[in-house]
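Fig. S4 source data, part A: sequence.
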Amino acid sequence: MRLLTVTHFFEDHGGGIERVAGQLCRQLSRMGAEPVWAASDRDPPPPPSAGIAVVPLACRDPLERISGLPMPLPGPRAVMALAREVRRSDAVILHDALYLTSILAMLLSKASGRRVILVQHIAEIAFSSPVLRLVMKIANALVTRPMLWAADERVFISDTVRHALLGTPPRISCTLLFNGVNGAIFHPDDRSAARADERRTILFVGRYVEKKGLSIIRALAATRPDLTFLMVGSGPVDPRRWGLANVEDLGPQGQEALARLYRSASMLLLPSVGEGYPLVIQEAMACGLPVVCGKPSDRADPEAARWLSGVAIDLADPAGSAERCAAAIDAMALSTEERRAMSSYARQRYSWEMMARGLLDLVNPATALVRG
């Protein structure tokens, strides 16, 4: 079965959606499918790997530096390449509705009669700019919700995103499939339990963009010299320009290195907005690392909410948000037993194989009925 995955970028861009797509393509290949991955050529495609074909789409991305949102614009050659791949595929998996590559793939899929599974990662983003907030609301009303209705199947990686876009109970059928975690890489060690009372090294992992709360981390670091902030990622915001001695920019990191950071840090801080269930939260949980994150990501998985500390984040008020993050960091106190339970839950509950199997069942419902 030839399955076309469409994202805005490949994994080297460093975002969570791209990482999820890459993991799913590799898992689908191991399960006997023939995955094809199409994304913007603004970043290099992943190196050739067994069973995965990549299709770089000729795009431009002038909006990310302005808005902090990656929004590649496909050109004529990209349209032709994507149309060709849609026709060749048995089904199309789209990651997030608002990207132009997803919209184009939806239109081409409908024209070609291909089954479409839309995996929705985010809802609205509470930008500091009221203009951008309004644009986001309008875009969700005019694009995201129609895309959800147009898809043959809808997948949400977060219960809060599902609620925000479809309500409770949902107005249309959908499936909740959590992102997976590689338990062979992301796991605790003996030192994880020894960090119970250490709150000195704060780890951030994500894109260096406004919605991830970089202005809040900057304000927090400036007022808390007793904390060391390790920054992992890349993007238009440059933490090195902050001039803060307690902030260290480590740049992008591979999975093994990232797992070591989870195991050696005291806490993960992700003061972001407009997210579903960031993969880095699940990876930190699997490593036994306490997490302070922006609401409502702390409730994305209702069963895991007891281990996460959610903070109300306002990008227009970095100082106030930083104070609330500081209070959450100081109050966070998971026992050794709680951290072990959190790690065990994450490694059992979040599985790439389970997520990929769920997608295959939606691609071919007859298979799911036979297996059920």
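Fig. S4 source data, part B ends here. Residues 368-372 have pLDDT under 50 and may be disordered.
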